[in-house]
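Example 9 (inverse folding). The structure is encoded as follows.
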C-alpha cells in the first residue's frame, strides 16, 4: 500500500482510497502531531524559564499562556471549520507554520530577553508588575504557535466525521490518538531526547517530525480523492440524535460549564498530585516527566473508552455527569489512597524493584517514578479522558455542527485548565493547602455532575435525575469529617524522612512545601523543602552553612559586598553579618523557607534582625543574576542537592557561572558547596569541569576538620591569593572565632589545611566530563549510579591534595621569621 502511494505521488496521479483508510491515515498523522506538540511544549517551557526565571510563578504563567492559546485557537477555528473547503490542505499549512514558529522561538526569545532585562534594570519593578510583564512576554512568544496547535482538533474533527451522530466516537478517537502522541512525546522529551540530544536537539527533532506531519496532510489533500465524497461539498444537514422535548434548553449551557470545570479540576489535580507525590518519590526531574506522561496516557485510555461509549449510551449528558462525579470522588479520597500506598504498598514495590534492578540494566531514577505514577494516577486520568467524547456527543446532539461543537468543547475544556492551573497554584494551595484544595476541586466536580443530571435527564426519571445530587451531598458530608491533617501525615510519613523525626510544622506555599522536624533521639531540628533535607541545627548540617558564611570572606580579603544564594536555616547570613560587611544580599526562591527558619532556628540565625542586616530578595537566583547589574566581591551558593532537586540543577550550569562571573568585581570569587552524598562521580566531575570551562582559576576545598564530607569549589577570574594575616585578623572579629570553632577552624593554618588543589591538580584527575549547561543539562538528567563517599574522599583528598597551596599564599604583613614559623606549623 505504501509503495503504491509513493509511486502515485512521484507520477502526480491521484489516488482513490476508501473513507475509512483516509481517516486512519489522518489519525496516524494527528498522533505524530500530538508527539511534536508535547516535545515543543516541554522545550518551550525550559527555554522561557531561562528568561522569566525558574519559579512557580513563571512556569505557571508560561503553561497557562500555552494552554490559553490552545483554547483560543480551538474557539476561533470552531467558527470556520464547518465551512472550510479543503480541511487537510489547511491543516498542512497550520503544521508548517507551527514548525516555523517552533524553530524561530530561540531568536524571538533573545529579543524578548533584551527587553526583559532592560525593564527590570530601568524600573526595579515589584512582583505584581514583574508578573504582568511575564504574562505579556509569554503571550508574545507562545500565543501564535499555541493557537495554531489548538485550531487543529476542530479542523480535523470536521474532516473525519461523516455523520454527525458519530462525532463522539470519531472525534474521541482523534482526541485519544493525539493525546497518546502527546504522552509519547512527553516521555520522549523527559526521558530520552533532552538527555541524548540536548534541549535544542529535542526542538529540532520535533521540527523534523512536524514537517513530516505537514507533508502527510498536504499529500493526502493533493493526491487522495475519497470515495463517496466530493472535495468542495458543503457539510450536509446531519441526522442528529433526537433531543427530548422535556429537557430544559437552559440545561445545555450546563454542558459548557461542565466542560470548563472538567478542565479546571483536571489540571488542578495534576498540580496537587505533583505536590503530594514528591514526598514519596523525591524531586528528580524524572518524577515530573513520569506524572505528566501517566496523566496523558490515562487520558488516552479514557478517551478511547469514552469514544466507544459515546454512540451507545442513551443519555451522553448523564454519562458525562457520572464520570465527572467519580473524578470528584477520587479527589476527596486521594490522600487516603496515597497514605495507604506509602505505608503498605511502597515497601513491597521497592523490594520487587530491587530484584528488577539486579536482573535488568534499568535505572531506579527512571523506573521507580514511572511505576508508582502508574498505580497512583492512572485511574483518575482515565476518568478525565472518558468524559470528553461522551460530553462532546451530548453537546453535538444539541448544536449539530461538528467543527463548532468540537472547537467550543475543546476550547471551554482548555480554558478551564488555564484558570484551574492559575487558581490552584496561586490561590488554593497558598491559602488553604493541598488537602483542602483537593476537597474543593472534588466537591466542585460532584456538584457540577449533580447539576447536569438535574438539568439534562428527563423529567420522568426522578431517581436518576436526583441520584448524583444525593451523592454530591454525601461526599460533601464525608469531606467534612475527614481528619484535617491528612497532608501533614503524608509529609510526616514520607519514606525520605527518618522514622525518628517528629513533625513540628508544615508551611505550604507557591513554590514548595516546607516542613520542620525534630529528631526524637537527640532533639535536633531539621528543615525540609518538598521532602528534601536542606538544613538543620545538628553538627553535620551546620558545617556547610558555616563554611559558606565564612570562607568567601576569609579567602578574599577584598570582600565587602557579598551575595548569598539560598537561605537554608539562615546561619550563612548570620556568619556573613559577623564580618561587618558593607552589603549582604540573600536571594531565596521560597519565602516559606525563610518563614520556617526564622520561627524555629532563631538560635542559629539573625531572627528579628534579619531585615536590618540582610537585603532579602525573593526570586530565582539565576534569574536575579541575569537581570540585576549589581556586582559583588563574593557569591556563595548554599543550594539544595542539584541532582535530587531538579530545579536546583540550574545553579550548577555553565550559563549560571558565566552570569556570576559577569557580576563579580575584579578580585571576586564564587564559592559553591558540593553535596557529595548521593552523587555519582560523573556529576561531581561535571560540576568541577564546568567551573574550569568558565573560570581560569578553580580550587577545591574539603573541610578535613569536620567529620561530615563538606566539599567546596572556589572559582575566580584572577589568580587566588590567600592572606594568612587577613584570615587571622578576621578570626578575631566578634563572634567569628566562636562560630568557626564548631567546625574546628581556629586559625589560618586550620583553614589552609582544608585546601585540596587548584585547576592544575584537578585536571590530572578530572580528565573527561560532560559540561553541564542549560542546553545540555547533564546533572539533571544523568542516571549514573551514586558513588560511595569514601571513594570520593580517596580520589580527591588522598589523590589530588597537593603542595600547590604554597603558590596561593600572600605573605603580606609577615616577617621572614613569622613566615618560616607558619610554614613549619602548617607542614606539621
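The amino acid assigned to each position is listed next.
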Amino acid at each position: 500500500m505504501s509503495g503504491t502511494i509513493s509511486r502515485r505521488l512521484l507520477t502526480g496521479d491521484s489516488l482513490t482510497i476508501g473513507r475509512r483508510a483516509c481517516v486512519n491515515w489522518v489519525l496516524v498523522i494527528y498522533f505524530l502531531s500530538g508527539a511534536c506538540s508535547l516535545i515543543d511544549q516541554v522545550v518551550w517551557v525550559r527555554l522561557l524559564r531561562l528568561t522569566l526565571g525558574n519559579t512557580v510563578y513563571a512556569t505557571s504563567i508560561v503553561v497557562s499562556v500555552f494552554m490559553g492559546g490552545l483554547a483560543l485557537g480551538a474557539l476561533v477555528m470552531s467558527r470556520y471549520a464547518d465551512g472550510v473547503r479543503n480541511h487537510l490542505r489547511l491543516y498542512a499549512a497550520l503544521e508548517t507554520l507551527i514548525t516555523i514558529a517552533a524553530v524561530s522561538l530561540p531568536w524571538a526569545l533573545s529579543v524578548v530577553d533584551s527587553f526583559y532585562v532592560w525593564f527590570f534594570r530601568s524600573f526595579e519593578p515589584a512582583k505584581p508588575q514583574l508578573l504582568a510583564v511575564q504574562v505579556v512576554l509569554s503571550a508574545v512568544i507562545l500565543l501564535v504557535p499555541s493557537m495554531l496547535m489548538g485550531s487543529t482538533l476542530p479542523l480535523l474533527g470536521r474532516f473525519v466525521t461523516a455523520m454527525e451522530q458519530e462525532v463522539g466516537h470519531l472525534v474521541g478517537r482523534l482526541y485519544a490518538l493525539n493525546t497518546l502522541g502527546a504522552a509519547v512525546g512527553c516521555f520522549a522529551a523527559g526521558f530520552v531526547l533532552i538527555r541524548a540530544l540536548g534541549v535544542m536537539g529535542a526542538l529540532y527533532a520535533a521540527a523534523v517530525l512536524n514537517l513530516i506531519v505537514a507533508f502527510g496532510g498536504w499529500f493526502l489533500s493533493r493526491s487522495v480523492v475519497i470515495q463517496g465524497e466530493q472535495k468542495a461539498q458543503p457539510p450536509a444537514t446531519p441526522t442528529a440524535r433526537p433531543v427530548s422535548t422535556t429537557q430544559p434548553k437552559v440545561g445545555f449551557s450546563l454542558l459548557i460549564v461542565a466542560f470548563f470545570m472538567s478542565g479546571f479540576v483536571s489540571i488542578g489535580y495534576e498540580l496537587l498530585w505533583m505536590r503530594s507525590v514528591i514526598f514519596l518519590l523525591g524531586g528528580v526531574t524524572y518524577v515530573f516527566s513520569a506524572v505528566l506522561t501517566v496523566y496523558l496516557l490515562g487520558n488516552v485510555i479514557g478517551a478511547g473508552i469514552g469514544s466507544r461509549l459515546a454512540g451507545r449510551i442513551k443519555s451522553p449528558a448523564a454519562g458525562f455527569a457520572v464520570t465527572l462525579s467519580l473524578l470528584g470522588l477520587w479527589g476527596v479520597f486521594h490522600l487516603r489512597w496515597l497514605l495507604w500506598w506509602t505505608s503498605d504498598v511502597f515497601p513491597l514495590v521497592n523490594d520487587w524493584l530491587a530484584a528488577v534492578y539486579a536482573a535488568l540494566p534499568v535505572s531506579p531514577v527512571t523506573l521507580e517514578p514511572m511505576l508508582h505514577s502508574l498505580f497512583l494516577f492512572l485511574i483518575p486520568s482515565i476518568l478525565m479522558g472518558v468524559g470528553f467524547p461522551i460530553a462532546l456527543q451530548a453537546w453535538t446532539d444539541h448544536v449539530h455542527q461538528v467543527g463548532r461543537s468540537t472547537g467550543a468543547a475543546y476550547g471551554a475544556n482548555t480554558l478551564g485548565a488555564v484558570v484551574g492551573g492559575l487558581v490552584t497554584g496561586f490561590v488554593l494551595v497558598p491559602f488553604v493547602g493541598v488537602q483542602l484544595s483537593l476537597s474543593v476541586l472534588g466537591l466542585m466536580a460532584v456538584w457540577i455532575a449533580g447539576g447536569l443530571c438535574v438539568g439534562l435527564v428527563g423529567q420522568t426519571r426522578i431517581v436518576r435525575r436526583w441520584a448524583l445530587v444525593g451523592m454530591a451531598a454525601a461526599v460533601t458530608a464525608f469531606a467534612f469529617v475527614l481528619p484535617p491533617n491528612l497532608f501533614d501525615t503524608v509529609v510526616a510519613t514520607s519514606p525520605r524522612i527518618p522514622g525518628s523525626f517528629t513533625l513540628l510544622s508544615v508551611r505550604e506555599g507557591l513554590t514548595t512545601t516546607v516542613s520542620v522536624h525534630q529528631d526524637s533521639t537527640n532533639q535536633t531540628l531539621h528543615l525540609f523543602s518538598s521532602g528534601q533535607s536542606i538544613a538543620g541545627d545538628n553538627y553535620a548540617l551546620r558545617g556547610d552553612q558555616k563554611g559558606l558564611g565564612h570562607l568567601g570572606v576569609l579567602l578574599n580579603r577584598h570582600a565587602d559586598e557579598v551575595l548569598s544564594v539560598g537561605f537554608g536555616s539562615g546561619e550563612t547570613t548570620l556568619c556573613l553579618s559577623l564580618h561587618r560587611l558593607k552589603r549582604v544580599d540573600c536571594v531565596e526562591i521560597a519565602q516559606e523557607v525563610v518563614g520556617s527558619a526564622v520561627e524555629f532556628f532563631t538560635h542559629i540565625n539573625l531572627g528579628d534582625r534579619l531585615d536590618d542586616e540582610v537585603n532579602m530578595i525573593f526570586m530565582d537566583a539565576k534569574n536575579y543574576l541575569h537581570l540585576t547589574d549589581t556586582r559583588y566581591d563574593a557569591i556563595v551558593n548554599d543550594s539544595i542537592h542539584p541532582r535530587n532537586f531538579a530545579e536546583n540543577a540550574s545553579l550548577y550550569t555553565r550559563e549560571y557561572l558565566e552570569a556570576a562571573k559577569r557580576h563579580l568585581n575584579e578580585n571576586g570569587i564564587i564559592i559553591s558547596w558540593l553535596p557529595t552524598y548521593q552523587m555519582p562521580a560523573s556529576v561531581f566531575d561535571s560540576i568541577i569541569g564546568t567551573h574550569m570551562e568558565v573560570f581560569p582559576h578553580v580550587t577545591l576545598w574539603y573541610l578535613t576538620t569536620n567529620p561530615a564530607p563538606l566539599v567546596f569549589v572556589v572559582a575566580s577570574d584572577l589568580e587566588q591569593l590567600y592572606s594568612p594575616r587577613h584570615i587571622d585578623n578576621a578570626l578575631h572579629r566578634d563572634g567569628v572565632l566562636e562560630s568557626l570553632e564548631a567546625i574546628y577552624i581556629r586559625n589560618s593554618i586550620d583553614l589552609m589545611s582544608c585546601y585540596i588543589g587548584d585547576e592544575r591538580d584537578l585536571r590530572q584527575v578530572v580528565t573527561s566530563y560532560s559540561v553541564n549547561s542549560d542546553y545540555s543539562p547533564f546533572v539533571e538528567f544523568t542516571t549514573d549510579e551514586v558513588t560511595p563517599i569514601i571513594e570520593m574522599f580517596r580520589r580527591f583528598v588522598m589523590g589530588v591534595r597537593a603542595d600547590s597551596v604554597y603558590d596561593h599564599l600572600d605573605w603580606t604583613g609577615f616577617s621572614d621569621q613569622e613566615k618560616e614559623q607558619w610554614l613549619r606549623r602548617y607542614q606539621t
